[in-house]
């Protein structure tokens, strides 16, 4: 089972920062998960929230006005070169202050990878909660792996089937909704299961036992130790 640092090694370093991604690599994580939003001038900022702690909205700021510790996606991809997995979560939800109904952000992420000559790099996995956003990525770059992020509901198998029907390669449920049946059904549909965000060693071991493909965790070193790695 892959160990993927949630926004980097976010228990030990500030989330979504260069330091967090470098620390995840230092701890031995297979990869990292990160969040991306757009700025007023079209830059791709690594930020989970649409609003900064001081109340400023990311999409209303120029890249030059972002906090010093908030990196742009291109810089993050450079430091993540040694990693086996880079899960880029596109933050785009109808309730967000920067909701992008035209899916410009999806296009910008694809364009960045294209400019870097990395559209065919299977280390990249593009995910998001907003299914139309991930569908847009898949339409623009069918060879780029995409995954649907879900929390969970009473029809988890139905969510798996929907992700598969839309051409995505993985389903990303919250770990509380993972069952052995879900994993088996997803694998039968040709989908990987990467779950989030689990920091409990016993639960991490159980997830591995039922065949989960990847676990997103705030504490990569703890997860690796739990798995005997």
Could you explain the architecture of this structure?
There is one protein chain. This protein has 229 residues and is an alpha/beta fold. The chain has a single domain (2-226), classed as Phosphatidylinositol (PI) phosphodiesterase (TIM Barrel, Alpha-Beta Barrel). It contains eight helices and nine strands. It has helices at 18-27, 73-79, 104-115, 131-140, 156-165, 180-188, 201-209, 220-226; strands spanning 2-6, 31-38, 44-45, 85-90, 124-128, 146-150, 170-173, 192-195, 214-217. The chain has an eight-stranded parallel β-barrel, surrounded by seven helices. Helix 3 (104-115) packs parallel to helix 4. The protein is globular, with a radius of gyration of 17 Å. The chain starts with a strand and ends with a helix. The mean pLDDT is 98.
């Amino acid at each position: 089972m892959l160990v993927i640092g949630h926004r980097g090694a976010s228990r030990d370093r500030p989330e979504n920062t260069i330091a967090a991604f470098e620390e995840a690599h230092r701890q031995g994580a297979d990869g990292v998960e990160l969040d991306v939003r757009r700025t007023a001038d079209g830059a791709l900022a690594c930020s989970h929230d649409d609003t900064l702690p001081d109340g400023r909205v990311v999409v209303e700021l120029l890249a030059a006005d972002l906090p010093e510790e908030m990196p742009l996606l291109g810089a993050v991809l450079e430091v993540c070169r040694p990693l086996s997995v880079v899960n880029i979560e596109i933050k785009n939800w109808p309730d967000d202050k920067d909701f992008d109904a035209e899916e410009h952000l999806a296009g910008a992420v694809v364009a960045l990878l294209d400019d870097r000559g990395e559209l065919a790099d299977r280390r990249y996995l593009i995910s998001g909660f907003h299914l139309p956003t991930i569908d847009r990525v898949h339409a623009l770059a069918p060879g780029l792996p995409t995954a649907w992020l879900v929390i969970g509901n009473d029809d988890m198998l139905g969510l798996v089937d929907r992700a598969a029907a839309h051409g995505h390669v993985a389903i990303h449920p919250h770990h509380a909704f993972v069952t052995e049946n879900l994993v088996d059904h997803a694998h039968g549909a040709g989908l990987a299961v990467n779950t989030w965000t689990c920091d409990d060693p016993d639960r991490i071991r159980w997830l591995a036992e039922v065949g989960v493909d990847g676990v997103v965790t705030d504490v990569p070193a703890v997860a690796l130790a739990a798995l005997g790695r």
